[in-house]
Design goal:
299 residues; alpha+beta; Structural Genomics Hypothetical 15.5 Kd Protein In mrcA-pckA Intergenic Region, Chain A; Pseudouridine synthase; 2 domains; ten-stranded mixed β-sheet; four-stranded antiparallel β-sheet; 6 helices; 16 strands; elongated
Length: 299
């Protein structure tokens, strides 16, 4: 069974450096090194096993073999049609339809994107568990970023912390917004009376949403939204807080007369690929149900 491996070559500035420091500079975490040491990974220099205390020399070939990942026994593989927009040995970009949960929960144990991804991995001989970088709500459609390995997920998590993974959404909301563009900077936390619902509250987590109105009609607005942070239900909560809940979002005050789910789509995803050292950008047009909603509103 093939293990995920990274290969480096020590340069002139690495002469005399501890392997531990060399790997830290390449963002291999202390937790990953412990995992490698105790769970079947390996550190090789010029083909020989070494420890993190090895002193490097210019020209040394460093190989980092990560342990084979075993999926949780609670996650069962399923055959599922997947709309894969992009794939390489490190990442997947998937266009998720509305009505599919990202990961299993008490209410949705099966039929989730994670179940389908695991089934896909097994059919392709990919030995990995599921690492979802950008999760979407059950009824939100659009682009999601998936890492194929724990270390890749770690690198994307560092990007997310520094706002390096950029996501743009489009939504249809109730009402004509009072400004053509703006920023909502309001902390979000769990509502005391619900295990699902969130709200703007002083003791919540820092949350920032930027918006721009694309078009308006009688009692509605088509809005482009860019997330600076990624809190649960962030767009839905922030738009309701502005007095413009998403059409179809009954949890936060939207009407479901014209559409049976929140009119929210993840249309653009941009990130820096940590293994290919370049920017990647993907766009996914609005799905049919939101297009129909806009056509009905404009007619």
């Amino acid at each position: 069974m093939e293990r995920f491996c990274l290969v480096y070559k020590a340069g002139e500035r690495d002469e005399g450096k501890l392997l531990r420091e060399f790997l830290k500079e390449r963002q291999i975490s202390k937790a990953a090194l412990i995992d490698i040491k105790f769970n079947g990974g390996a550190l090789l220099v010029n083909g020989s096993a070494v420890t993190v205390r090895y002193i490097l020399h210019e020209g040394d070939k460093v190989e980092v073999f990560f342990p084979i990942e075993e999926p949780s026994g609670d996650l069962l593989p399923e055959e599922m049609p997947l709309d894969i927009v992009y794939e390489d040995e490190y990442v997947l970009v998937v266009n998720k339809p509305a009505g599919v949960a990202s990961i299993p929960s008490r209410e949705h144990r099966f039929g989730t994107l994670a179940n389908g991804l695991l089934g896909y991995y097994q059919s392709k001989g990919i030995h990995a568990t599921i690492h979802i970088v950008t999760r979407l709500d059950l009824d939100t459609s659009g682009l999601m970023l998936i890492a194929k390995h724990r270390h890749a997920h770690h690198l994307f998590a560092l990007q997310q912390r520094d706002y390096g993974v950029k996501r743009r959404y489009e939504a249809v909301v109730h009402g004509v917004m009072d400004q053509r563009q703006g920023t909502i900077d309001a902390p979000i936390g769990r509502k005391d009376t619900s295990i699902i619902e969130r709200e703007v509250r002083e003791d919540g987590q820092h949350a920032i949403t930027h918006y721009e109105v694309l078009r308006v009609g009688e009692g509605w607005s088509h809005v482009s939204l860019h997330l600076e942070t990624g809190r649960t239900h962030q767009i839905r909560v922030h738009m309701a807080y502005k007095g413009n809940p998403l059409i179809g979002d009954s949890l936060y005050g939207g009407s479901m007369i014209n559409i049976k789910r929140q009119a929210l789509h993840s249309c653009e995803l941009c990130f820096y690929h940590p293994f290919y050292s370049k920017e990647y950008s993907f766009f996914q047009k609005l799905p049919k149900d939101i297009e129909i909603l806009l056509e009905e509103k404009e007619s």
